[in-house]
Amino acid sequence: MDQALRLSTWLVPTLREVPAEAEVASHRLLLRAGFIRKVAAGIYTLLPLGKRVCSKIENIVREEMNRAGGQEILMPILQPAELWHRSGRWEVYGPELFRLKDRHGRDFCLGPTHEEMITALVAAEVRSYKQLPLLLYQIGNKYRDERRPRFGLLRGREFIMKDLYSFDRDWAGLEESYRKMYEAYTRIFTRVGLNFRAVEADTGAIGGSVSHEFMALAEAGEAVVVYCPDTTCGYAANVEKAESLSSLEEIGEEGPIELVVTPGVRSAEEVAAFLGLPVKQIIKTLIYRTEKGLVAALVRGDREVNEVKLQNHLGVLELELAGEDLVEEATGAPPGFAGPIGLSLPLVVDREVLHVKAGAVGANRPDAHYINVLPGRDFPVQDVADIRQVSEGDPCPRCGRPLLSVRGIEVGQIFQLGDKYSRALNAYYLDERGEKRPIIMGCYGIGITRTMAAVVEQHHDEEGIIWPVAVAPFQVLVLPVNYEEAPQRELAEEIYNLLREKGIEVLLDDREERPGVKFKDADLVGYPLRITVGRHAAEGKVELKLRRTGENWLVSKGEVLEKVTAFLEGKEFCTG
RNA sequence: CGGGAUGUAGCGCAGUUUGGUUAGCGCGCGUGCCUUGGGAGCACGAGGACGGGGGUUCAAGUCCCCCCAUCCCGACCA
After folding, report:
1. Which of A258, A289, A311, A497 could potentially form a cystine with A322 if both were Cys, beta carbons 3.0 to 4.6 Å apart?
2. What's residue A575's pLDDT?
3. Count of H helices and E strands in chain A?
C-alpha cells in the first residue's frame, strides 16, 4: 500500500511567526508553511511539501519537453576545468563560478549550466547529419555564486533547473527547434498557473543572438519589462534589451561655443536649471571603467545609460562607473564636470545626442561647462550607438505608441546559440555531400525552484498560499474538526480512503489539534480544496471549501467524490 | 564588491545607552487537567550563557579590537 498520508506523521513545521529574514511573500510563506528551510545564504532544503510541489513542476516540464521531442539525460554537476578552458568561459564566467580542486590539485567547478559538457558529449557521439536534429535535456541542481542571493528561492546559489540543448544541421533547423521550445514554454507556464509574458532578451554570458525570456509578472521580480499596449503590435522586451524610437527632435540652435562658470553645478538637472535650458539639451558624459580601460558614454541629459547595451557595444566583460578618483584623473575635474571636448578617452555617443544642436557639456575643469556645443563640430562622433535605457512612456520601436512597464521574475530563457560552442568544442557533422559543418545549437532553461516561488508570488493572500491544482502539494485536505470524536474520525477516514482509492492526492489532518490551529494551517499551506468533517458528520454530511474563493458547500458523503472530481477537472463547481 | 543594519532559547523580541545578584518576555515544545468550528485556559516543566576569538576591568550580554554569519539598498543571472 501507499504511504500513509496523515498529517500527524508528516514533517510540516508551520510557523506562527514570520522569520525576520524573509522579505517577499514567497520566501515568507514558503518558510512559514513549512515548505523550505534555509541552510546558508541562497541554499535551501526542500521539506516534504516543498519537494512535492517541485516534483509536480518538474513533471509538467518533463511532459512538455518529451512532447516537443526532448530526450532526458543526466550530466554531472562536477565539471572539469578543462572543458571550460576550451570554451574560454573559465575566465569569462568570473567569480560566479563555484570553483574547487580535487586532491591532486586539478581544477573543477560546480556546473552553473552545461553547454560545454553537452557539446563535448555531442561532439564525441554525433557524426552524421542523419543523427540531427537532437534535443537533450536534464533536470538538476545548478550552482552560481551570486553576488547577492536573496528573496529565498527567487535567487539562490544552488537551485533546480531544467536545461535543454538543441542540435541542428543549420539555422533553419535551429529556428524550428527554437519555435518548438517557445511553444513548450508557453504551455508549461500556462499549466503551472503563471501569469507570464515572453519578452525579447539580452543574451548575456551565455552568448548567442536571438533570445527570449519568460517573465512571471510580479512586483517582487527583479527584472523590468517594457511592452507595447497594442496587442497586435505585441512588442515586449527586457529593459536591458529594449529599444525605442530615437527622438529625432533637433534641440537648440547652432551657435558659437562658449565657456560658462557653473560653480558646484553637477547633475544634468542642476545644470539645466542653472543655465535655464531644458534637461534634454544637456549632454551627459559618464566615465566607465572596463578591463580595457576607461571610456566615456554620452547620452542626453534626460536619458539614462543602459549599461548592458554599452557593455555589448564595447565587447567588454567588466563595466562599471568609474570612481571619483579615476574620473578626476581622466578629466581633471570632479564628477559632474566631465565632457567630451578635449577628453582623451574613447567616446561612445548615443544616437539621440546627434540631434542636440546646442548642447551643454562639462568642461573637464572644476565649476565650468561649455554651451552651444555641436556634436561633430566640437567633439568627434565616430562611435555612435543606441546606449540609452528605455523607460515607460517612450515610443514603441515598432509602432510608436507609448510603452508600458512591469516587473517580472525571469522563470525561463531560451537562446539561439549558433556555432559558438560547437566550434570551440569541436562539434561537427558530415552533411549529405560529406562536408564537415558545425552543429547549430540552442539552449533553453527553466528555473524550477524559482518557478515554484513565482507561483507563490502570484497566488497568495493574507492567510497563506493558494496553490493552483496542477502544482499543489496535495489537491485535497480532509480536516476532521475533532479527530477524537468517533463519528467525525470515522467519516473522515472513510472519505480519505475513498479519495485515495480513486487516485486523488489527499492528505488527512489527523492531528489532535484544536480546530483553529488546523484551519489556520490549512489556509497557510494552501490546499486548493478542503473537506471539513465536523458538526454534520453524524448526518453523513461534510463541507467542501475552496481555498481560492472561500466558497463552501455542505454535501452528503455520497456526493463527495463527484464534487471533488468535478473540481479537479476544472468543471463547473456548484451546489447541485 | 561598495553602502546600511543585525546577531541573546526552535521562532519573534527586551536587556547593551549609564558594566554589578541566579539573563527576561511572548509564541512554540514536554506532562497533566480542561476544552474542541478559526492559531483556547490553568498548572508544572525542559531549554540559552548572550555569533566566534582576543582585550580592558575586582566584575563584561553590556566597553575596545579582529573575525564570522545573516538581512536590506546599488552593479549580474534560471
Report:
1. A289
2. 47
3. 14, 29
DSSP string, A217-270: E-TT-SEEEEE-S-TTT--EEETTT---PPP---BS-----EEEE-TT--SHHH
Q: How far is the CA of A432 from the C1' of B78 (A)?
A: 37
Q: Are residues A232 and A118 in the same domain?
A: yes
Q: Which nucleotide does the CA of A450 lie closest to, via C1'?
A: B78
Tally the C-alpha atoms within 13 A of residue A32's C-alpha that lie toward its C-beta: 27
Which stretches of A301-438 are assigned E, i.e. beta strand? 319-321, 347-350, 359-362, 368-373, 384-385, 404-418, 428-430, 436-438
Residues 70-129 of A with CB under 7 A from strand B: 96, 113
Which residue range forms the structural domain that includes residue A530? 474-568
Q: Is the Cβ–Cβ distance between A63 and A494 less than 8 Å?
A: no
The residues near A374 (Cβ < 8 Å, ≥ 6 apart) are: A254, A257, A357, A358, A359
Q: For residue A153, give Cα distances in angstroms to A51, A53, A142, A159.
A: 13, 13, 13, 8
Residues 14-43 of A with CB under 7 A from strand B: 14-21, 23, 32, 38, 40-42
Q: Are residues A301 and A200 part of one domain?
A: no
Number of structural domains in chain A: 3
Note whether A245 and A397 are within 8 A (CB): yes
Say which amino acid occupies A419: D
In sequence order, the 6+-apart residues with CB closer than 8 A to the CB of A433 are none
A479 belongs to a structural domain: yes
- Are residues A219 and A72 part of one domain? yes
Q: Report the C-alpha gap between A299 and A315 in whole angstroms.
A: 19
Give pLDDT, residue A209.
78
Q: Is residue A575 part of a domain?
A: no
- How high is the pLDDT of residue A207? 65
A368 in a structural domain:
yes
- Reported ipTM: the value is 0.91
Between CA A379 and CA A376 the distance in angstroms is 5
Maximum separation of any 2 CA atoms in chain A, in Å? 97
- Percentages of chain A per state (helix, strand, coil), in multiples of 5: 30, 30, 40
Enumerate residue ranges in chain A where pLDDT < 50: 1, 575-576
